Amino acid sequence: MQKIAIASDHGGIELKEDIKIFLKEKGFDVLDMGTNGNESVDYPDYGVPLSEKVSQAKLEKGILICGTGIGMSIVANKFPNVRAALVSDVYSARMAKEHNDANILVIGGRVAGKGLAREMVRAWLEAKFEGGRHQKRLDKIKEIEKGMKR
Ligand code: RB5
């Protein structure tokens, strides 16, 4: 069973719960990394643990949700090996995998409705990284992470 992690702050919890149902229906083993209530929390407290797992290859992929998705995407992209894509349309969600090999999908819980969010998750999960010229570009990003290029 393919494993996937999901985390949100209070701005994304409602969508997180719905996406969890969707992922389970699709046969995923879902690791819920919080938050688990409606009280106001700080998105880095939930974005960091998930991003760390992906960064360290303890998990292949994850989904992060906050109100806009902006905070979570800023957090996630601080981590080496993480390619987090904030999406609000299905085309970008598919491209996030095909061209960018995004290993974290970020959604704004106050931006995207549940139907759109499910379709974006589906598009990202079903897409395949195309490699080739896109791999060359990811290699250049890896060089930035290594501190070899400024
Ligand atoms: C929380 O109110 C909100 O700022 C947060 O969910 C997110 O949108 C930040 O980027």
Characterise the protein shown here.
The chain has 150 residues and is of the alpha/beta class. It has one domain (3-148): Sugar-phosphate isomerase, RpiB/LacA/LacB (Ribose 5-phosphate Isomerase B, Chain: A). It contains six helices and five strands. The chain has helices spanning 13-25, 44-55, 70-76, 90-98, 114-126, 133-145; strands at 3-8, 29-32, 62-66, 84-86, 104-108. A five-stranded parallel β-sheet has the order 2-1-3-5-4, sandwiched between helices. The longest helix has 13 residues, at 13-25. It starts with a strand and ends in a 5-residue tail after the last helix. The mean pLDDT is 97. D-ribose binds next to helix 3.
List the helices and strands and how they pair.
Elements: E1 3-8, H1 13-25, E2 29-32, H2 44-55, E3 62-66, H3 70-76, E4 84-86, H4 90-98, E5 104-108, H5 114-126, H6 133-145
Helix pairs in contact: 1-5, 2-3, 4-5
The chain binds D-ribose.
Descriptors:
150 residues; alpha/beta; Ribose 5-phosphate Isomerase B, Chain: A; 5 strands; globular; binds D-ribose
Mean pLDDT: 97
Largest sheet, in brief, is: 5 strands, parallel
Overall spatial form: globular
* CA(first)-CA(last) distance: 40 Å
Number of helices: 6
- Tally of domains: 1
Under CATH at level 1, the class stands as Alpha Beta
Structural class: alpha/beta
In N-to-C order, the SSE pattern is EHEHEHEHEHH
- CATH architecture label name: 3-Layer(aba) Sandwich
In the predicted model, the low-confidence regions spanning at least 5 consecutive residues are none
Into which percent range does the helicity of residues fall?
40-55%
The beta-strand count equals 5
Give the spatial strand order of the biggest sheet: 2-1-3-5-4
Taken as a percent bin, the fraction of beta residues is 15-25%
Radius of gyration, CA atoms, in whole angstroms: 14 Å
Give the distinct bound molecules. Answer: D-ribose
Write down the CATH topology: Ribose 5-phosphate Isomerase B, Chain: A
Classified in CATH, the superfamily is: Sugar-phosphate isomerase, RpiB/LacA/LacB
